Amino acid sequence: VAGGPQPRDYRVRIPAAMRRRALDSALLSKFKDQEAAVVESAPDRLGVRRMENGAIVLTNYATTEELKPVDLLLRYNVLLRNVMGRYERLVRLIETHRGAITPALAAAFMSDHGDVITGAERGTGITVCSDNNVTSAVFVPETGLFWVAGGGEPACINDYVGYDLAAELVGTPGDPRPALLSGYSWEDPDRKAAFEIYMKAYIAYEADFSNKAAALEYLRQAISVDPAEPAYARMAGILSIHLGDYQTAVELFIGALTLPQA
């Protein structure tokens, strides 16, 4: 949330107005002073975390001491995956490139497919660019330029399209340079191809839960292109069980368990 003419008021009003859900969070910033803070809230508590060494990271779990005890996802690892992985990966990327982060590099961070747990590039897993990402952007306050990932889900796998905030606010054409940011550069093009096929399975299943055969066929294709990704085999195994093909499910699960897990 960008502070306007009265940033002190924003810092008070925004936390107070945050919906009292199980857990909510916001990132407040004051560009002029190059300050930022994370604010997290629950019905009975409020936590604030400030920048450390000129940077701050916020992903999908509580990071303030006040909210950590009530974040069930963090406490019990409900998703059966390390929810801290995306956060840790971003912290490492920032530290590695401190003092040299450009808009292009920032877009690469937001679309990163390195799994901090396995130490390898993965199509899907504990990666910054996650399967269900619908919004991804890079903003440079000093210039007013920003880039927004376009295209289908996940947004972070697509090019980032440039805009000029000042021009947009007055309705005139902007000329952001560069006009596009390519984001993450895949080490293995087959892994990217398999991930794109996997996303077809993801979307097919979301569109029609009853047509499990369609999603399963896409997963089989993804496995053939990237047999080193255990998630594809695990998901194919689950769908095989739903379709009554238990022998195939067992084979898929055994195959997945021979691969590095995360």
What does this structure look like?
By secondary structure, the chain is α+β, with helices and mostly antiparallel strands. Helices cover 38% and strands 16% of the residues. It contains nine helices and nine strands. The protein has a four-stranded antiparallel beta sheet. It is globular. The two termini are 33 Å apart.
Query: What's the order of the H and E elements?
Result: HEEEHHHEEEEEHEHHHH
Low-pLDDT runs of 5+ residues are 1-8
Percent of residues in beta strands?
15-25%
Number of strands: 9
What percent of the residues sit in helical stretches (DSSP H or I)? 25-40%
On the 0 to 100 scale, the average pLDDT is 88
Number of helices: 9
Largest sheet: 4 strands, antiparallel
Strand order of the largest sheet: 6-7-8-9
Overall shape: globular
- The whole-angstrom Rg is 21 Å
Q: Structural class given helices, strands, pairing? A: alpha+beta
Between the first and last Cα atoms, what is the distance in angstroms?
33 Å
Helix and strand arrangement:
Elements: H1 7-17, E1 24-30, E2 35-42, E3 45-50, H2 72-76, H3 85-96, H4 103-110, E4 114-115, E5 120-121, E6 137-140, E7 145-149, E8 160-164, H5 165-170, E9 180-181, H6 189-207, H7 212-225, H8 230-242, H9 246-257
Antiparallel strand pairs: 1-2, 2-3, 4-5, 6-7, 7-8, 8-9
